[in-house]
Amino acid sequence: MTNRITEHPILEIPQTEEIPFYWKKELLKAKKGEMISSALIANGINVFGHHHKDRTAQGIFCANGQCAKCMVIANGMPVKSCMTEVKENMIIESADGLPELPESNENIEFKPILSVKTDVLVIGGGPSGLSAAIEMDKNNIKSILLDDKNVLGGKLVLQTHKFFGSVEDSYAGTRGIDIGKKLAETVTKSNNIEVWTNSTALFVFKDKKVGVLNDGEYKIIEPKVILNAAGAREKYLRFSGNNLAGIYGAGAFQTLVNRDLVKASQRLFIIGGGNVGLIAGYHALQAGIDVVGLVEAAPQCGGYKVHSDKLKRLGVPIYTSHTILSANGDETVNSITIAQVDKSFKVINGTEKSFACDTILIAVGLDSLIEFTEEAQKAGIKVFSAGDAFEIAEASSAMFNGKIMGLKISKELGANVSEIPQSWFDKAEVLKSHPGKILSYQNNLPDEGVFPVIHCLQEIPCNPCTTVCPTNSIKIKTSTIMGQPQYDGSCIGCGKCLFICPGLAISIVDFRKDKELPTVSLPYEIYNKKINENDEINVVDIDGNSLGKYKVTCVQTNKLNKTQMIKIQMPKHLAKKAISFIVQSPEITIPLKNTILPDKLDDSTMVCLCERVSVADVKKLIKKGITDINQIKAITRLGMGPCGSKTCDVMLKQIFRQEGIPSEIIVNNTRRPVFVEVPLEKFTDNK
C-alpha cells in the first residue's frame, strides 16, 4: 500500500530517488532524505509500537520532536521517527514495550567541546528568526541562527496558501512556501549570519552558555544576546480515546501532506476552528483527503471568516458550539463522536453524533516556547523574543515583529540605529489584530459593465487586492488595512484581484456580453479535483447554499501563483452572490446511523501520554491538597516521560482550574536540563 501524493494543485511533485529499508524484517521503499515516520505512513503503517504500561498503540502526533509517541528502534537505537532520516537498508523495529538495547561501550572518553562566541544566538529559523537575522545583518551584527530542521523557514515551508497582511511589510498575497524560500535565500547569502541547520538548542546554562546539538555534535555557544524565535508547541485535549493512534497535531498533518507529500489520511475530522484548523482543512482538500467535518466549541470560529467560508462552500460542514466526546477504535481511530455544548460549554445530552474517520486533527491553540527566554533571564543573558515565542499571532505578524526585534538587538549591541518609528509599532499592532466585525456586502454595485464582488465580510489585516488593482479601483477607506475593501472606480476585468486574494473571496461579474446572463469568474485552487470546460458545477454563495448548477464556459490558470479562474454564465439576480462551488460529496459528511457513546468515566482520559497518567490519578492528589506539580510528578511520574512535560503541563493546569485551585498557590514544574533527549554518546569521544 502506498500513501504518496502524486498530484497537487500547488506543490511540485519531485522525482526523488527511492531507497530500501526494513520494517519488522519486511523490505519497504522510502524517499531519500525523508523522515522514518513519513516513510512508514507512506507505506500504510500508522502504528509504530505499543506503550509498555497499557499496550495501547503509539503513532505520530507532533512531527516536531516535542513528544515521543513516534519512537522506534532504528539500527538498534531508540529514536524519534519524525526527526530521524531513513538511511539505505536501515533496520527499523517497533518500540513495543521496553525493548532490549545494545550493551554500552565501556571505553568512553569525554572529548573537548567546541565553544563558539557570537554577538547574537537566534534560536529558530522560522519567519520571525529569519526576519530578525536579516535586519541585524544590515547593521553588521554577527549572529548564529539555529534550526532543528534541515531547511530554513519554520512553518512557512508547510503553508501552501497565500498570506494575509500587508504586501509592503509581510509579503501578503504570496504563498507561505515561497516566502520561506525568499527569506532563507537572503539569510544564506549573508556573511554576518552563520546558519546551523539540523541543530537543537538544549539548554541555557547559568554560566551564560548555550548547549547545542549541531548535526549530531555537541557544541557550546557563548552569545552576548539571545533571540528566542523558537515558535510554539501545540496544545492537546482530554477526551475519551485520546491515546489512540491516528490523532495528529495540525503541524504534523501539514508536515506530512505539504512537506513530505504523504497522504496522511483518507477521512479527516478537525477539532478547532482557529486559523490553524481551518487552514489545515483546506490543505487536506488540496491533498485529496476527504474532510468529514470540523467542530468548534465557541459559537463561531475564532479564525478568519474567509477561511471558514472556503471550507463551507467546498462542502465541509462546520459545527460551532460543538465539542469532541470521544475518539473511537481499538488501536487506531475509526470514528469520532461529537456533541453540542451550551453557553457554559457543557454537553447537551441527546445531541451526540458519530462520524466515520481514520484521523482526528487537534488544532486547539498553541503555547509559546518560553523556556529559552526564562532560562536566559535566570542566567543573566540579555534575551529578546519574537514570533510565537513572544506572542501567538499570524506569520505575517511574526515577520514584522522579527524585523523590529532585529533592530532592537542591533541597537542594544551598539549599532548606529535610529529610533524605530512609531509607525512600525502601529503596523505591528494591526498585523497581529484578531478578526474584527462582520460586515455586509457592498450594496451599490452596478448591473452593467465588469466589476469585482468582494466576499470578504470581516475586518482582517489584509490589502493585496488594493495593491494589485491597475486602475486603483479597490480601496480600503480606513486609516489601516483592517477595513473592508470596496470597489469604487472603473474595472477592466483583468482578474488580478481574484488571483491574488488570500481568502479566495473575490469574484468578477461581467455584463458586457450578456446583460441577462452575465459571466461570473470564480477562484479555484483544488484543481487536482479537475474542473473542465463544459462541466456542470454546483455553484454556491458565501455560506455554501446552492445557487444552482451551471456549465463551465472557460478555465483559466494563473501560472505564476497557480490559482484558477472558473467562468460560468448565470442569471443576473444570482450573479453577485456566487463565489465558489461544491467539490466534496455530501455523502462524506453524513453521520453514522448508530451513535457511539463513550464510557461515562471521563476521568479515565489521559493527561500524561508518556507515562499514562489519567485525570483520576491527578484529581486524587489534588483532593489531598497537593498543589506542587513537582510532588505530583514524583508520585505519578507525570511529566517524567520523554517529552519532558511539554504536552501534559497545560492539561494539568486545566485540571487545577476546574478543581478551583488558585493559580498563585500552584508550584510550577522545575524544568530539567536538557530540554530534549540527547544520547549520552554525543557528549563523548566514543565512535
Structure description:
- It is a single chain.
- The protein is an alpha/beta fold.
- Helices cover 21% and strands 25% of the residues.
- The protein contains 16 helices and 35 strands.
- Strands 8, 9, 10, 11, 12, 13 and 24 form a 7-stranded mixed β-sheet that branches. A 7-stranded antiparallel β-sheet has the order 25-28-29-32-31-30-33. The protein has a 5-stranded mixed β-sheet with strand order 2-1-7-5-6, with helices on one face.
- Strand 17 (290-296), helix 7 (305-314) and strand 18 form a beta-alpha-beta unit.
- The longest helix is centred in the middle third of the chain and has 18 residues, at 395-412.
- The radius of gyration is 26 Å and the shape is globular.
Short description:
The chain is an alpha/beta fold.
Number of helices: 16
Specify the CATH architecture of the largest domain.
Answer: 3-Layer(bba) Sandwich
- Low-pLDDT stretches are none
Q: What percent of residues are in strands?
A: 15-25%
Task: Give me the secondary-structure category.
Answer: alpha/beta
Label the overall shape: globular
- What would CATH call the homologous superfamily of the largest domain? FAD/NAD(P)-binding domain
- Main sheet summary: 7 strands, mixed
Chain-averaged pLDDT: 92
Number of strands: 35
User: In angstroms, what is the radius of gyration?
Assistant: 26 Å
Estimate the helix proportion, in percent.
10-25%
Distance between the termini: 38 Å
Question: What is the CATH topology of the largest domain?
Answer: FAD/NAD(P)-binding domain
CATH class of the largest domain: Alpha Beta
Structural domains: how many:
4
